[in-house]
Amino acid sequence: MLPDFSLPSPAVKNASCPISAATEDHSLSLSGSQGVGGAAASALAMAGTCLSLQVQQQQQQQQQQPPRKARRCWSPELHRRFVLAPTTRWRSSSNFLDVVATPKQIRELMQVDGLTNDEVKSHLQKYRLHARKMPNSSPAVDQPDVVLRGLWVPPENYTTSPQPSVSLSCSPQSPLQLAGSNLAVSATAGDSCEEDGRSECCNWTWGEVSAEHI
DNA sequence: CCGGTAATAT
DNA sequence: CATATTACCG
């Protein structure tokens, strides 16, 4: 005589009125037109900063429960700052991020508006995870590089960016700055926007770069 | 309150 | 599986 309490029943749970995103909904001009022999222009925000934009059915949690902040996409720019900020202070250290780098300090040094300690903390964790896995022999493919393990930024026109702009994050109105050539995103069969790479949003590389040349 | 790690969600 | 956020703990 136990009424269905609350067990993780994998029953069906779907079919519901779609709700609009709670967070700011940026109009995304997605060319979903069936390019039938036309100029298919797939819009793919490959830029740096971009907030998670996914229309997921979010209809389950009742009550006021912050549905988890949108995933903050760590764009190369942000990562660059994240990895470069501490360099300004504790440079020369091959692992300043592994030594003494508190999210707060990093955030302060980053000077990125809209970045919270938690985000930095999270990113730091990820960074450490990768940093810990990397500084070691590789299973098979090994890149014959003589680079010191430090940090690396995407092959972009970075290098001491003389632009300490504060509008780096992608929260508020940000001047969409799309630079570089835009790679036409070709859908496999020209259907929906299914990207091949299963990266969430920002696809940047975790490469290594020698923060300091010997 | 801040920092780190685990758990959880996408 | 990778990545990001939340939660919990020190």
TrEMBL record:
The Gene Ontology CC terms held by the record are: nucleus
Per the record's keyword annotation, is Transcription included, yes or no?
yes
Q: Which Gene3D superfamilies does this chain map to?
A: Homeodomain-like
Could you state a single Gene Ontology molecular function term?
Answer: DNA-binding transcription factor activity
Keywords (A to Z) from UniProt? Nucleus, Transcription, Transcription regulation
Q: Which PANTHER family match?
A: HOMEODOMAIN-LIKE SUPERFAMILY PROTEIN-RELATED, MYB FAMILY TRANSCRIPTION FACTOR
- Can you say what this protein is called? MYB family transcription factor
Native source species: Musa troglodytarum
Q: What is the lineage of its organism?
A: Eukaryota, Viridiplantae, Streptophyta, Embryophyta, Tracheophyta
